[in-house]
Amino acid sequence: MSFETLLIDVKERILYITINRESKMNALNGATLTELQAALSAAFQNPDVGGIIITGAGPKAFVAGADISEFAVGDAAAGGELARHGQEVIFDAIENGNKPVIAAINGFALGGGLELAMACHIRVASDNAKMGLPEVTLGLIPGYGGTQRLPRLVGTGKALEMIMTADMITAEEASRYGLVNHVVALENLLPKAEEIMNRILLRAPLAVASAIKAVNAGQKDGVNGFEVEIAEFARCIL
Predict the structure, then answer these.
(1) pLDDT digits (tens, 9 = 90+) for 74-92
(2) Could you tell me the pTM of the whole model?
(3) 187 a catalytic residue
(4) Model confidence at 69, in pLDDT bands (50, 70, 90)?
(5) Which of 35, 115, 194, 232 is catalytic?
(6) What sign has the CA pseudo-torsion 52, 57, 58, 60?
(7) Please, what sign has the CA dihedral across residues 12, 195, 125, 147?
(8) How far apart are the C-alpha atoms of 177 and 187, rounded to whole Å?
(9) How many CB atoms within 10 Å of residue 210?
(10) 202: which strand partners?
């Protein structure tokens, strides 16, 4: 499949997805979301792909938010459906996928861009990266899981401060708050993400998928994470 807004490459069982809208700071538009869904769905089903690294084109931005001009939906019902669709087929799909996904954050990760990074299992940031959820400056709130995933990563108080002030934080601050796993120089960003992914790929794929499922279960209301862990443990033994 050919893509207009993504660059796709596979090397040594790692699928690289580069959001390729550099002139727009890699902002998410309708086409990008549709292509992301297709690329991720294919990757999760491809036995030759062991893990996925997502990054943005150029040195300035991972994803600097959504392309607001394309998201005028007219009424609350349509807006809700837009958020629900994106959350379920892309952001939840990443979080609950059967393969590890690493975000290589190469610059600004704002709004939907930070939400995309937070849906990934591991986040590595370049030292020039800045992150934030600026939606309240537009009279909105995050709509792709930001109000749910950010508190899990940084705690409720810090999450509310970031969301309500719309302030950006640096990569170093993000590391201190637990929002990113590692901060490296820009030229070392992909090598660091690859280093982590290659260590994961040395492990049993079924066990990795079970670990993702069990850890995620503990974050879901009405789900007994311990029971999911037990079931996945048993499944690995079979």
Answers:
(1) 667 766 777 788 888 999 9
(2) 0.95
(3) no
(4) low
(5) 115
(6) negative
(7) positive
(8) 23
(9) 20
(10) none
